[in-house]
Each structure stands twice: as C-alpha cells, then as structure tokens.
Amino acid sequence: MWRNPFKRREADYHRWTERDLALENAPWTPLSDLDDDDFGRDAVPPRGYDRSRYRSGWRSFLPERARGRGKLWWGSRIFAAILMVFIVLVAWLAITAPLSKSLEPIAPPQITLLAADGTPIARNGAVVEEPVEIAKLPAHVTQPFLAIEDRRFYSHWGVDPRGVARAAFTGVGGGSTITQQLAKFTFLTPEQTLTRKAREALIALWLESWLTKDEILERYLSNAYFGDNMYGLRAASLHYFYRHPENLRPEQAAMLAGLLQAPSRLAPTRNPDLAAKRFALVKGAMVAAGYITQDEAKRMPVPKLDVRTRNDLPTGTYFADWALPTARDQSEMTYSRQTITTTLDSELQAAANRVIQRAPLGSAQVALVAMRTNGEVVAMVGGKDYKTSPFNRVTQARRQPGSTFKLFVYLAALRNGWSPDDTISNRPFTEGSYRPSNASGKYSDTITLRDAFAQSSNVAAVRLLNEVGSKAVIETARELGVTSKLPEGDPSMALGTSTMSLLELTAAYAGVAANSFPIEPHAYAEGQQGWFDWLLDGRGNLGSADQREIEDMLRSAINSGTGRAATLSIANYGKTGTTQDNRDALFVGYAGEGENRLVVGVWVGNDDNSPLGNISGGGLPARIWRDFMRAALGASAAPPRPTPSPDPSGPVQPQDVPELQDIPLGDGRRLIINEDEAILSTEIEGVPLELRVRDGEFMMDLDEAAAERELQRRIDEEMGR
Prior knowledge:
Radius of gyration: 38 Å
Domain Penicillin-binding protein transpeptidase: 367-629
EC number: 2.4.99.28
Number of helices: 24
CATH architecture of the domain at 353-526 and 539-633: 3-Layer(aba) Sandwich
Transmembrane segments: 74-95
Number of strands: 17
Distance between the termini: 135 Å
Strand content: 5-15%
Keywords: Carboxypeptidase, Glycosyltransferase, Hydrolase, Membrane, Multifunctional enzyme, Protease, Transferase, Transmembrane, Transmembrane helix
CATH class of the domain at 353-526 and 539-633: Alpha Beta
GO molecular function: carboxypeptidase activity; penicillin binding; peptidoglycan glycosyltransferase activity
C-alpha cells in the first residue's frame, strides 16, 4: 500500500526537526524503503514502522530496554566486568602458584634417569656450595649481573614493563626481572605458556612484598644455573676460576654474569668463543648502566679459566653421562626433581656388560654401542671399567674407522652405476707416492667388487675411490650422517684414515639398515612424526637395487669374508676394520628384523694409540659383536643345537649353587662358563684362540687374520736369515 508516512496528526509536528518537516511534501515512498535516517532523532516514526527492524549499529543486537542507555552506563558496566575477571584470575593464580613455597629454602635439583622398562639407571644431583651474602660481595661482582639481567632491579616491584620494552628495542638484557627469573627456575615448570608467565609475575610480586631486595638477589645468585652442573655463584666461581666469589676479579664476574642466559651453550669450558662474545656484551651493558667507563671496559681482558677436578658427582654409567646433558637442556634446569625415561634397554645393557667382561682384552680398551634403526641407543659400553676410566670411547674418542669406511666407497660406486659383479684391478701399486697394500698379502689381476669388499682388499678400494671420485664418496658419507672432516682428493680416505667417533660410524650403518638417513643417535624416545613433518624431514634413501646390492656385499663380508667370526644363524650384515699397525680393530653391522633389528658397533684399541699386536677387526671385535647379538636377539641368532630330553632318573641338578662365570687361570688364560657353553680363552705364540665346548661338541675359534700375519712374519724372518 502506498501512502505518505508524514501525514501525521498536528500534535506531533512540534517534535519534528526542520529537516523532517521538509519531507512532508516528499513523494510517496514505500514504508519498507525507509530507515531511521529518514526521521529526526526525536521524531515519532509513522505507524507500521518497526524501528528495531531497520536500526543499524551495535545497539541493534541489544535488548529493547538497553538500547537507550548512555555511554557512562555502559562504561561502568564494562569496567566492573573486567575487574571481576581480573579478581577471579588473580584468585585462581594465587591458588595454583606456589606462593608459600617461594619463601621456603630452595632444594637442589635432581634428575633420575630410567631405562625403557622403568629401571633407575642413574641419579644425578647438582653441585651446590654455600650461599653468598650480598654484604660480603664486592660491588664489581654484583654489578655485571644487574647490568645484563635487570638494570632497574632496585627500583621496580618485581615486574618491569620498562625493562621489557628496553630489551625488545635494544636486544640487550632479558624481559624478565631477576625476581621473575628466581620464580621461574625455582618454583615453576619450564612450560612456555601465558599461564606460567602470569604465575611468574604473581610470585615475583609476592617475593617483593616479603623479602628485601638484597635477600632476593642473594637467593638468585646462590641458586642460578651456570652450566657444567654448577648451581650458584660460589660453585660456579670455584669451578671456572677456583676462587670464592668474594675474591673474583671484575672480568671473572662479568664472564659468569654472561652465562646465565644459556648456561649449557655459553659455558666457557665447552664454547669459549661464544662465552667471549657474551662477555663483551656484558661489558657493554655495564658501560650503558654507568658502572664502568668505556676505557675500563676496553682494558678488561677475557679471563683465563682455572678448572680443577673437584667433588664431581658421576652418574656411574657411560650411557647416563652421555644422556644427562640432553636431559638438562630439555628440563631447562628447573629445580624440580625430575624422572626421565631413556631408550636404554636394561637387559641389552646387561648383556653388553657380560660380553665385554668375558672378552680376552688384556690391556686393551673396548667400546660397544647398540641402537635401533631409528637411532634409539639401547646399550652403550664406553670402556672396560667406568670406575677406573669414565672416558667414553663410544662418544668422546675419535679414532680411524679402518676398512669399515669402505661402506661409503662401495655404496658411492653402486649409486654411480657399478654392480657387485663388476671387476676392478687387484694388483699391487707400483707407481705413485701412495702405495697401499693388502693386509693378507694376496693379490690378483682382477677381482669383483663383492669379493673385494668381502676380503677387504685395500688396493681395490683405493682404485675404486679413484674411479668414482672422492667427492662422490664424501657426498655419500655426508648423506649418511658423517660430519667429521673428510679430506677431498686424499686416496687414503678409502682405507678409513679420517677420524670419527664410534657412535657416528654406527649411526651411518643404521641409515643403511633402515634405508632412511641420516640417523641421529638419541637417548630419549622421539614423538610420533606427523605427515607434515615427514614431508619436510629431508631424509634420503637408497634405491631398491642399491639397497639390495649393498646388503648383499655386507652379507658376503660375514659369510665368506674377513668377518666370518661374526656369523649368526640369521641374516646378518657387517664389515670389519683394522687400521695401520693394528692400532684400531672394529666390527660394525646389523641383524634382526623389523623393530628387533639392531645396529651394533664394536671397537678395540689402546688409549695411547699403540699397536694391538695380533688383534684385528675380524677377530676379537667380530666375536664380541657375535656374542652380543646372540644374547640380544635370543635363540634365533644362535646356531641350532639338539634339545636334550630330561632324564627323570638322572642326578639331581642343584639350583642354588652360585654360577661360575669367569675364572682366570694365569698366563693370560681364562675359563668362561656360560649357561650353554664353556670357553677356554688363550693365546698360542701370540695368536688369540678360543676353545668352546657346547652340548658335548668341541669348537675352536681362531683369529685367522692374526694367524696369517704371524705366519707371514715367521716366513719373513726365515727369509731374512
């Protein structure tokens, strides 16, 4: 229906504005096309006009009775709501934050490591000394900490917005005050959430209201983490400079103040260059704070360390010593007592220890590491006796890998089109400055790659490296995770003359076993990888043909080559390694299927790098590898044997007699009694020999390579005469 909506009764006209009256003579307009702007603010809308229907703006969402409220009314209600939320939030934080605990003495942190089955394997406490007193510390000791960590410490109330803004703008100092840092590392978990930051601020305000500034600073300096398992300024100053904090020189105090940002990474014993850069930054902060002049800062030298052996708290195992620094980094050094589960398999670790203890090592040292194909380390033995020598020869020693390095040479050749059945010259070198020889003294016109790998021909490996190029070999090693220095253009690299750790070498073999590389060894289970992570992880893999051929060659090295002493009853893959003058003897390989597949590396050598005599990679290391694999993989890895039927009428077998395991017989001979065999270990004219009796069967293990060398030595002596 069309009508003029402005034809209203005369009594309403006085409420219309001048603009509204001008609309009286406007043309007829449909009511549905009108809105509030067509009426004056005080005008009465025509009958049939629904103001709420056509109202625009935020008020249209409010109830009818609230649409006419003013700004003051709305402002007071919003402020009251915000205040109520704030009160509830503070109350909740006060209940969940350890306010009362923050005033109690701080307990030293402690980390307990567990094996995968929950067995405690190590417990490590902190190195903590007596707390410091601010009144007894020289000003030049406290000033660096205030300058770099909290310049307005004595003027704020625990939270410093100005300090946060300055840190964000200049990049110097932290956003948290010293009081907040004390609350964080002593009373809160390391979670990175807004809730924790809110609790941190609340505890800081609580500490400021109950403690003096000097008391807060004393607590902070007495309990902060300074790296190398040192907690508190006194422990740190004694550890790094062998001085009590009251006697620290200005440059020493400045160095210690710089460690607090990232103690594990900036510790001068580990990263002196990073510590020196941080030291320079602390000096700049002291100049900006007015504690020293620019000239004084220039004259302040980088302090020299004076680290001495003190009452350290060793964990007691090689694996725990390797795993603990990672546990500290993951926990961000909080003061809570933590229990962390590792990947160590307690049964496999026990098996590794038994095998090592029974091995006829003499004065030589030994190392063994076992890992899954995903890099989870399940057993680690870094030496014969941890108490005598805690030096970890799995992770810390860098030795030549010998012929185990040939894996990368032959794999590079396969990836460049070579086949295991292709032949290469096996004649001795007669020209050039570098003339390697075969350890066996045997040569031939040609040899297949398979046989050259199995027999560990040195001349064939060097020629193969020259054919494919050292660059391709280095590239293959890098893809498999080798990070050690590898000199390009050096033909001796084919024989493993570049040093690396046993852990690094074994991880490379794990990459072949998994056909996914590089493999990073780790002591803690990793989370399940999502599909997006899988797309971006950058891992490589071998083609199916290359994988099949390299495993064929690794099997030939055990079944018919230098690693025959490592033979198992199941499919096994590995390579021997012996360095010049028998200074290092290694065996690295893998066996098992699926999740049970183990990759194991074994090294035998002397810490002073002296020759081992007649020990080679195909001898004692291969036998250690075999014995561990049999214990780790169970009956499937041991050779088959008849199962005796029990005789009820036979003699009673005592069950509570202590088991005899290892009996020294003198002159280097040992009688080793296991559950299923007896072993007599001895040497005959320098050649290691093991005589085994199992289920009435007699077996003999002879180090054939050592016997060949001994025979060759005698022939040479006879010819020399």
